[in-house]
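Q: Make up one entry.
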Amino acid sequence: MDVSPTALAALSAAVAAEITLAARYLARIRMPRPPVGVYTGADVAVLCAGVVLAPLLYTALPGAAVSAVFGLVGCLAVQFTLAPLLATTRLRATPWSWATALAATAATALAALTGHPGAARAGSDLIIATAVIGVANLWTQSGMRSTHTAALAAVLTGYDLAATTLTDTTTRFFAQVQDRPFAPMLVLTGGPAPVAVGLGDLLLLVLYPLVAAKAYGRTAAWAAALTGLLTTSAVSACFAAGWLTTGFPLLTALGPLIVAQHLYWRRRSGGERTTAQWREGHPLPPQVPTHTEPAELAAALAAPVPDGTPPGT
């Protein structure tokens, strides 16, 4: 099927805008830390299990029930994303954030029920985009490390590949939520071959640049953002050229790149900053030298011992 090159270019632009807005949110807004301690490997394992099992559960439910679940989750995510943002104004944050989230959800549902698919798609996209910014910032600011994000990307890469190419799980789930409000994807065009990016793909596209900024600094964040954007644009170009004609599991390309970036920056930096160190403006961990020249080692060993040094030092 023919796919509009303009819509594909707009999708890349939408991803770039989403990453930019999430980064500005991270720089300006401090979210309240949930009372759940710090992230551990077990937390990431539970998260991965939920992501893997959720589509299997949703395919067993009626389409209307799936829309209702995602609508409720989206409403809650919009509320907790807007609450700290509105707290920086003179408005009362909690009532206004709830009013905005409920109004957006109700307007989207009403547009779908009254036969206005374009308005329903726009409302769903706005809710999804806001929710992704909030969730990515919540995870980053509450202590998710680059190690955890890389592990999540690795697991989801394998799952995405299996669910899309080895089984029909993704196909069945897509058929169930297609053209419904609150579908878990950012959709720019409707029809049987929509131009869209899945919720999981979009979340990792936004999440890793934020985590990289906290863990390794601005250069790592820019590299992560550009890598994600170039990956999305490359897949879009393949669709525009006709090399791809069916749904492509984006994480099979993006996931290994996230893992590779994490390994590179960890080796280069020797460690990553914690959330507390990042908030306090601590410098990055010192760079670990990869090797020592023989001449440098000989000079260090031949250096004179200062006077007054205790014997055996």
